[in-house]
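Ticket #4471: structure export looks truncated?
Reporter: QA, pipeline team
Priority: medium

Steps to reproduce: submit the single chain below to the structure queue and open the exported record.
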Amino acid sequence: MTNSAYTLDDTGARARYQSLWEHARGIFASLRYAEAASSVFGLKPKICFHEDEAALLLHLKGGGKLRHVVIPPFTQYSALLLLNPPPAHLIHRQKTPLDELLKSAEQISNRADLLVTMDDPRTAQWRGWEVKPLFTYLIHLPADPDDWSSGARRTWRSNTSDYTIRENSELAGEVIDLCRMSYQRHGRKLPASPTALETLVREMGDWGRVFVAERNGITEAGAIILHDEHTAHYWIAGSIPGPSMTVLLGEILPLLSESGISVFDFVGANTPSIAEFKRSFAPALTQYYHLRRRPRIHFGR
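Actual output as written to the record:
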């Protein structure tokens, strides 16, 4: 039985969701992130449950017929909590917790976008959702620079003494500006305003770590790492062309590992040149999915 959707003001629903999250984890599925993103981007979160084994937190934009389940800017994964992978026979019968959660999302809005990690996306496909595969790179920490490509290893070792690496949350604005310029070089616009992103970083508190690489007093690379104390995400990052980002990553990966982080997620490997840069650090290619639902168009006779 699938329950109704709950707002974040419902203390019982929050406690129930938090209990699931403690087992499944994921920074983008955390209540802290949901509250911060909803506040910054003007969204209305709702939580759907399937018994006590699964939950889906949806970000809603608009109202009435224009209501849409959206993926907030700079959100790598949607907030889907599944404690156990369903057995194949339940997938084939369309009787899984994910079936029930997607049914709840369908009842809330006929327009929806979700980014999810799962081994088997047929559940969504059989329900009429569009399913598009996407990819990211993961590094299991601690990382060994000897495993990197020869170019990345050479760049890091020959340039690291030229840079000063600093961690300081007050430098978030500089990193966001570098990210904006990186988007511009690829002919794209930053998906959110710099002011909104600075507020989001601030709201995430100590779950957002800000690192920069400086040379001769100039910030050449920066990365804001979002983490849940287990997995870290290369969340908001940018650099001027040159060796600075290779140096920065080479220095912060050990720092993350020393603080207890076990996995580093590069947040996407879907643009050729960017994917090639990330590949040079010897990560593992991992797949996830964009689930998309749109209203069906019915033509009159």
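Status: closed, not a bug. The export was complete when the record was re-opened. Leaving a note from the reviewer for reference: Residues 21 and 81 are 7 Å apart (CA to CA).
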